[in-house]
Every structure is written in C-alpha cells, then in structure tokens.
Design a protein that fits this description.
Layout (H helix, E strand, L loop, with lengths): L1 H6 L5 H13 L5 H19 L5 E5 L1 E3 L5 H12 L3 E4 L2 E6 H10 L4 E5 L2 E4 H12 L5 E4 L13 H7 L5 H13 L21 H14 L6 H13 L6 E6 L2 H13 L7 E5 L4 H10 L2 E5 L10 H7 L5 E7 L8 H11 L3 E4 L7 E2 L2 E2 L6 E5 L13 E6 L18 H11 L2 H19 L6 E2 L13 E4 L6 H10 L5 E2 L13 H9 E4 L7 H17 L18
Parallel strand pairs: 1-5, 2-4, 3-7, 9-10, 9-11, 11-12, 12-15
Antiparallel strand pairs: 4-6, 8-16, 13-14, 15-16, 17-18, 18-20, 19-20
Bound molecules: pyridoxal-5'-phosphate (PLP).
C-alpha cells in the first residue's frame, strides 16, 4: 500500500521522506525495499512515457570508470595491506562499456537484465589481488538474511547481443584504473560542510508556513519548545537559564556579559589560541584585551597548566575556553584553576551541541556556555541560530538591554527543534564517519587527529587531521580538490598578535586540514574520502627539505 502511494506520482525527496522511512522500517534487510523503489521508478516512467516507448535496463553492479564502489574499495584495502572484508554474498556484475554497448544495440522497447555473470565477493577480491599482483588477505563475514536479489540473470540480453566482456578481464582493467586514480573519486564535489537536512521536512515546512502566515515570528510556541528540549537535554538545573539567540556569536557576547560583566579598561581575557575568528572578535568588540593561550597537543583545547600560570596576573578577568571543532575543553581542570583565582570561566561551545564532558552534556561546566546552530553545526536553525546558558539570575535585559534583537526567530526555532529531537542520531552518524576516517587514515605516516579525553564525547562538527609537513597540507588539499573532495585549513590563525610563543597552535595552523564531515554523509562516502586521501598521499612525493617535528607539550618551569 505504502509503495503504491509513494509511486503514484513523482515527488521531491523532502515530501516523500517520511513515507519512505515507514516503508523501509517494514523490511529489516533493506534489500526488498531497495528493489521495490527501483520498480516504483519503472512504474512512474511507464506512466509518463507509455510502455511502448520505454526501454528499461536492470543493471547488475556496474564496474569501470566512474564506478568506484566495491572494486575500488577492495583495491584500496589490497594496496594499504589491510584485510579485504567481504560478505558471503553473490552479485551480478557488468562493465561500463557493455552497458554502453547494450544501449547502442538495443532492438527496441522492453525490459532487459544486463549482467555479465555472477560472482561471490570473495572471487572478486581474489581477482582484484591477481590484477594487482598481491595475494589478498580475505576476511569473510556472513551475508545479511535473504540476500538473493543482488543476482541478475542477464541470459536473455546476452542471447540478443552476443557475449559480454568476461568478468576477470573487466575486474583486471577496473582494478588497475582504480589504482592509477584515472577518474576523480567524487565527480560531483563533496563539500567540507554539508548542512544537516530536516528530519521531518513535511512538519518543518508546515510549521514555518504557519509562523509566517500568522505573524508569530519571535518568542512563540516553537521557541518555547526548543528552549525546554535543550534545557532538558543539557541537564540544566533550576540554577541555569537558556536563552535562544540569532547566532553563536550573539550567544558568546551574552555569555561574556552574564559571567564577567562589561570589562574594566585594560581587563585581560585569556582565550584559547586555537579557535574560530568569532571568539576573539567578540572579545575585542566588547573591549577586552585578548591574550591568547596555547592548547594541549592531544585534544587541541585550552591547556589548563598554561591557564593556571597566566591566572597569576591580576588583570586577567575572564578565561574563555573553546570546545575546538566539537571536542570538549578540559573543564574539570580549567574550573579548578579559575575557582582558585576567583575568575569566571566562559565556554565558547559553538560546535559542542551533542558533546559531553565527564559523562554529562557540555553546557553546565563553565559559568556560561555559548552554542551555535549555524548551517555548519550538528543542529542548524535553518542556517543560523544559537543558544546561551547563563546563571538563572543573570541580568541580560536590564538597561541597556542586551537581548534586544538578539533572539532566535520562530522559523529558525522550528528547524532547530526538528533536529534537536534526533540530536543523538545526528552525532552518532558523525561518529560513524569519524570512525572510518580514524581506521583508514591514522595509519598513514605522520597523520594525527584530535584525542578525546576518557569520559568525554566529541560532537564532531569537524574532523581535522594533521598533515605532516613533508607531505604538505596545501599540496594534499589541491590533490583532494582534483578528486572532488573539498577540504578546509581549520582553524585559521585569529587576528590577535600573540604575547608569547604558541608552538602547538602554530603547528595546527600549518598542518590541520578539515575533511568533509556531516550527518548527511554515509560511511560509504567516508570510505571514498579516505580512499581519495590514500590515493593522493601515494601520488605525492614527500618534500625532502622538511624535517618533521612531533608535537610536544610545553614544559612549564
Ligand atoms: C568556535 C566558534 N565560535 C563561534 C562561532 C560563531 O558562531 P555563529 O556562526 O553561529 O555566529 C563559531 C562558528 O563557526 C565557532 O566555530
């Protein structure tokens, strides 16, 4: 019934999402729902053009240029010396060239299965190994239940059109082309940031339309519900208050005001040197003297030992920690240092919605936390938005009123609420992508990523990797751009002159490169990004003039 309904007329994806999810929930193997979605496409086309004018090709797995997929994955595993993990399944395969030949020779309308034959994935791995002159290490896993629909019987088409290219030749050609990186991994570039799509687009559209129509554009029902949901998820007790804002930058301004008040002339703010420009810009705009402090070489977050040392200076009136890229700052130790000195701790938690410290959501560890809901974060308030957590009695709207025009709009609250309801799922998807990156990339010589402290959870707004100097971050980024993988040097150097040396931050500014990361990405996307990185690294010769210096913790006398 649901399938018939979905296939009744062409619909844009965001209108059919809910229906498709219900349909998929009825099929734990996902194989039949996949086959039915293909059938639905045929039905739609038949209605549109009529059966007498329609030729349908039911393709087996296509192997060849632009079709990286299973052969490409096996090639990368073989080249990296990793085991080829294969399921115990059998699939039909055909070359790109044979598909083109079938299209050009077809006798007329009708339905044609196009497959050169069926192989087990193990046979495929062996053929890939043979093509590359390597004896592959194959690890077989059981196939998902009822897996037979991947086998395509192409006999009728073969009788009509003559022989297909034998599979061992197809695989040999394709494996070698994949090794030599003949075609970009992503013909349509994959952006470094892919904003999260709505979970319930139908509801979001309806609610936003109702807000616009009724004129309820600020401080209405959806802002109320989002505030409640966030307060609950962040475990805010009665002593804290959450205010929705138009951006993370606005939230940070309010957090500083609430926790530290307006600065006295000459008052110093200690601020993590490894951060986004907005952090220091807000401090400078408010009149603070910014003193950058270096970060820990493992977590890339504010170094508590250096903070404790700087806090001996009585002009320091606030400490600003940053949950760098979504990795929580070391709140336990920063808190202790700030409490000893009697100085407020403010957290730029812009990328930390969904992160946790010591088993608790990030949001209550500092005196105030500022979150962003821009298009690049785990939750997007339709492109922009934020939230600030402050003490319940914080004066923000006395005269002068800092809250004026800084509130989130209702349409943004509608979009953000939709995603906050599935925040755990969104972060879990990012964790899966990061897991692929870690497994595939951290074995490359000199590559290193952020460490997450035991008990903490990274929200993974970005996943950045240190690219060793002898390889060259810019050279790698340029090669990846050719592969259709967009990257970003992250974070960039902020525009504040450092008082002393910042060796860890300086290294990160030279070496850290953010790869695509989004809850919209699949593990297959992540795997292809990792393959593009591995291929690019293979094609780049290390620079001889560079000496690699491992990051070391600053020694405090
Ligand atoms: C660390 C940090 N602080 C502040 C901001 C500013 O947030 P918004 O863009 O929502 O103003 C960002 C946004 O990327 C950020 O990463």
């Amino acid at each position: 019934m649901l399938a018939c309904e979905a296939a009744r007329e062409p619909v844009v994806p965001h209108r059919s999402l809910q229906l498709c999810e219900q349909l998929a929930d009825h099929d734990p193997t996902r194989r039949w729902v996949y086959a039915m979605s293909k059938l639905a496409q045929e039905v739609i086309l038949e209605r549109a053009v009529g059966g007498e004018r329609l030729t349908v090709l039911r393709l087996a797995n296509v192997v060849g240029d632009g079709q990286h997929r299973v052969v490409g994955r096996l090639v990368e595993a073989v080249l990296a010396g990793r085991p080829c993990e294969v399921t115990r399944s059998v699939r039909g395969f055909v070359s790109v060239e044979d598909v083109a030949r079938v299209v050009s020779l077809l006798p007329g309308p009708g339905l044609f299965n196009v497959s050169a034959g069926c192989w087990s994935i193990r046979e495929l791995a062996l053929a890939v190994g043979a093509a590359l002159g390597v004896d592959p290490d194959i690890v077989e896993r059981p196939a998902p239940a009822d897996d037979s629909c991947g086998q395509v019987d192409g006999e009728r088409t073969r009788r009509l059109l003559g022989t297909f290219e034998p599979l061992d030749e197809v695989v040999r050609r394709c494996a070698r082309a994949s090794r030599d990186a003949a075609v970009p991994m992503f013909p349509l570039p994959l952006q470094v940031v892919v904003p999260p799509r709505p979970n319930r687009p139908d509801l979001v559209t309806e609610r936003i339309a109702a807000c616009l129509w009724s004129g309820s554009l600020r401080g209405g029902r959806w802002s109320g519900e989002l505030t409640e949901q966030l307060a609950e998820r962040l475990h805010l007790g009665p002593g804290r208050r959450l205010v929705l804002t138009s951006s993370g930058t606005t939230a940070l301004r309010l957090a500083l005001l609430a926790a530290a008040g307006p600065p006295e002339p000459g008052a110093v703010a200690l601020c993590s040197a490894y951060t986004f420009h907005a952090t220091t810009e807000v401090l400078l705009q408010m009149g603070w003297t910014v003193r950058l402090v270096d970060v820990d070489p493992w977590t890339w977050t504010l170094d508590p030992d250096l903070v404790a040392m700087e806090l001996e200076d009585p002009s320091v009136s606030v400490v600003v920690a940053v949950d760098a890229l979504g990795n929580p700052a070391d709140y336990t130790r920063l808190r202790a240092a700030c409490d000893t000195a009697g100085v407020p701790l403010v957290a730029d938690s812009a990328p930390a919605l969904g992160a946790w410290h010591d088993g608790l959501p990030v949001g209550t560890q500092a005196d105030a936390h500022a979150f962003s809901m821009s298009f690049a974060k785990t939750v997007s308030g339709a492109g922009s938005g934020g939230a600030v957590v402050v003490a319940a009695d914080a004066q923000l709207d006395a005269s002068p009123n800092w809250l004026r025009s800084s509130a989130m709009t209702e349409p943004s609250a509608v979009a953000a609420l939709d995603q906050v309801m599935v925040l755990e799922r969104l972060v879990a998807r990012r964790q899966e992508v990061a897991q692929v990156y870690r497994e595939r990339l951290l074995g490359l010589p000199g590559f290193a990523a952020q460490h997450v402290r035991p008990g903490d959870g990274h929200a993974l707004v970005h996943w950045a990797v240190r690219v060793p100097g002898q390889l060259g971050r810019e050279r790698l980024a340029a090669r990846l751009a050719d592969e259709g993988v967009r990257t970003k040097p992250y974070y960039d150097r902020v525009a504040v002159a450092p008082v002393g040396p910042l060796p860890i931050t300086a290294t990160l500014h030279r070496e850290a490169l953010a790869l695509p990361m989004s809850s919209e990405m699949s593990t297959d996307d992540a795997d292809r990004v990792a393959t593009a990185v591995a291929r690019s690294v293979r094609s780049l010769h290390p620079r001889r003039d560079h000496v690699h210096v491992p990051l070391q913790r600053t020694v405090i006398a």
